[in-house]
Amino acid sequence: MREALQALNALVERGVIETYAIGGAIGASFYIDAVQTEDIDAFVDFPPSGGGLLSLAPIYSALTDLGGKLEREYIRFGEWPLQVLPDATLLVHLAIREAVAVDFDGIPTRVFRPEHLCCIALETDRAKDMLRVRMFLEQQKVDESVLRAAARQFGLTDKLTRAEAL
Amino acid sequence: MAPAETKSEYIVRAKAILREDLRAQSWPEKVRAIERMNAAQKIGQKAMREALARKNED
Question: N or C: which end of chain B has fewer CB within 10 A?
């Protein structure tokens, strides 16, 4: 995972992306028990482009230059396939902007805040995502009042109620 | 296993200890645990494929 984080940091240094944050199961594992996953989800904030069209091509190209190997929609670094996801919604945009600066084995990186990880999981709404929200609640790793307010803001209150009832 | 402990009590206690261990892990340790889970899954899938291939040959 170190190689993938170093490559993401290099993208920021080179100005290919403005910033990024780790989400998904790897991001969640910063807070809650480890759960199996096969990839790293990196959400990226793009610099504004003239054309208006969003393309991941420059990011994939830069990541392969940094030693990543292209595998379908992933770029593999060592054992880990890295998936680059754009800030496609206001929720993801906010989650990237407000991500927490952390450290992985001496490598600086950024991870989504717990309430954003939960809201994105609620939005994705697969069984494993709902279970992840349940784990955050059960392990008391999310501020419930902050989560409730964020869920209300993004129209996810019903889904949160469903996760709470699991 | 403690002398007065039944097998099921021991299992419940061991699982609780394991759970606490997992929670106490640092982020890199948790990621390494996921890497081990993935490696174990690949070994399991390979064994399954080989067993199926053998079954098809018979």
Answer: C
